[in-house]
User: What shape does this take?
Amino acid sequence: MNENRPNMPYEEDDSRMREILGSLRHASPPREVQERIVQVAMKRVKKRPLLAHGFELALAASAAAVAIGVGLHLWGPNAPVENPLPAKGSLHASGELPTSFKIDAHEVHLSPETEVEVLAAEPGRIELALSSGKATFDVQRLEAGEVFRVKTEHVLVEVVGTRFSVQSERACSTVTVEEGRVRVSDTAGAVILLSPKQQRRFCPGANADYLLRQALVLISGGGSLDEAVKLLEDYLHSNPAVTLEEEALYHLCLAHARLGNDEEARRLAAEFRQKFPESPRLDRLERGLATLP
Amino acid sequence: MTLLERCQAGDAAAWEQLFRERSAQVYRWAVLLGLGPADAEDAAQEVFAIASRRIDTCHSEGALGSWLYQITRRVVANLRRTTWIRRVLLGGESLQPAFGGSESPETPKEIAIRSCLEKLPRAQAEVMVLMEIEGFTREEVADMLGLPPGTVASRLRLAKQAFRRHWQELEEAAGEISLSWGQR
Assistant: This one.
């Protein structure tokens, strides 16, 4: 890490960063792009009807009057104050401490360094995007037609009235259900239902390949075998039809053997034999396992 | 009359002046918040379209920059959402020069900075862009983003740590003297 470099005091390093970033302070688009932006924007301004401003105000005033009237009629003057829905596009982030917020009657608990963006928040329809970290959702029972969704880069989780958590990491998302049931769709369109106490990791194809690459780097470079096993397991669980399953299973089996997990290695070897009976790797695998006690 | 008041009165010349004065800034924000050049151009046009419809909600000339930024970040977030599937399924496209064109000597540095920003959590990158590139103070950024100043400071600290790390990785990968963190 840079902070530990002996000949680079932190303050000096910081000012260098400022200098690098500051080089973009006056960056401009090419002249023709700037001109296009102005011309298109001018066309849009000119298209705006002269009466639009007054008309919008009048429309807003009428809508407000109708809304107030309907509100008074439905809820009366002593109606309880509802928890206001957060604005669409608003961001809820925890710093170094966990934090919580409410959306309607539902509760969202953010672990440290977590960010959730509100994609939609209206009665009966809540959609959130978890961009990083882990969030736990306590969702009240939903009526028919009501929607509570949480999206990460890797999955879309739809609630059927429940308590669950979603964790988004670089290559995968983990969904854990405590109560109720959730429906999860991955980026390939596969949909599964998760029941209470079930947990599932989702690592879409492009990201999953990254897991396999990392595992092979660890194995070939003499890195942590435990870490490689975890990556390979994530890869294999990422999708029922991962493209390099044969390679992943082969290395997972040998990694377990090298770690001394003989029973697991044998189980995986049997699985490999069943799935890939024609594989040229089968012979090497069996020779490798023959040395096990 | 101020520029803002003239725009609010529907003066076309004032609008053109505002667009000319602010187009580079809005485009730059869009790029630094993670859009490619083509999307940033669309975003800038959309920002100005929204601004022209909602100019009455801007209350002072001094707040114009901050007000335009609020619109920009929403437009960028929407654009990023609509390109979500494209980014996830097709993987990240290589960054295209957004400012000087491929022949500009500054382009490698621009691409390097943007690729490091791209790797940061978006909220951290946003704070870093506003403070370290745009030169806003911590209090101004806190006001713009509706955050406590302490959160802004904390995000900036994390952003700097991560940015420094990514920059060093780039430097090691490229071996380019021009990217060297320690060069003077």
Summary: Chain A has three domains: 10-75, 91-202, 207-289. The CA atoms of residues 38 and 44 of chain A lie 10 Å apart. Chain A has eight helices and twelve strands. Helices of chain A lie at 10-22, 31-47, 52-75, 205-220, 225-238, 245-259, 262-275, 281-290.
